[in-house]
Design the sequence.
C-alpha cells in the first residue's frame, strides 16, 4: 500500500530543467519532477509519496513529490507527444505484438506483466520473465498459432 504525507518545502537543494531536489519539513529530501507537477517553492505544502523510503527500497532516503497543494490546477505542455506504442527494447514489445495480433484475429486472450495467454481450449500460455528480452521464439510461435 502506498503511503502519502503532506509536508512543507523548507529549502530548494538544487534544480535543473525537469527536476528540483527539495528538503521537506520532518521528512528529509524529495525529488520534484517539474515537467509532471510544476515547480515548488519554499513554504509550499506538497503531497509526498513516502512508500519507498518507509519500506527501505533503496531510494537513498529520497521521497517523491506527487502534487503541490499551493495550486489547484496545472496545465503544462510537455516537451513532446504521447506515443501509443510499446517500448521496442523490452518485453513490452512482445506483449504489444501479441495483443495486436490477437485483436486483429478476434481471439480471446489474457495478458499481465509476465503472461501471454490464449483463452482457448488449450489455454496456451507463455511466461516472459526477463523484462529486457524483446524477442522470444515461444511468443512468435504463439502468435503464429493465432
Sequence:
Amino acid at each position: 500500500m502506498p503511503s502519502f504525507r503532506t509536508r512543507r518545502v523548507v529549502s530548494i537543494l538544487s534544480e535543473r530543467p525537469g527536476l528540483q531536489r527539495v528538503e521537506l519539513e520532518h521528512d528529509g529530501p524529495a525529488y520534484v519532477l517539474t515537467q509532471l507537477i510544476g515547480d515548488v517553492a519554499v513554504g509550499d505544502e506538497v503531497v509526498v509519496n513516502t512508500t519507498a523510503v518507509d519500506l527501505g527500497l533503496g531510494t537513498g532516503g529520497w521521497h517523491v513529490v506527487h502534487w503541490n497543494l499551493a495550486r489547484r490546477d496545472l496545465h503544462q505542455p510537455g516537451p513532446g507527444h504521447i506515443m501509443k506504442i510499446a517500448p521496442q527494447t523490452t518485453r513490452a514489445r512482445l506483449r504489444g505484438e501479441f495483443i495486436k495480433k490477437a485483436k486483429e484475429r478476434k481471439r480471446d486472450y489474457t495478458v499481465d506483466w509476465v503472461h501471454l495467454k490464449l483463452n482457448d481450449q488449450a489455454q496456451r500460455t507463455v511466461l516472459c520473465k526477463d523484462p529486457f528480452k524483446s524477442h522470444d521464439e515461444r511468443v512468435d510461435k504463439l502468435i503464429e498459432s493465432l
The first helix runs from residue 34 to 37.
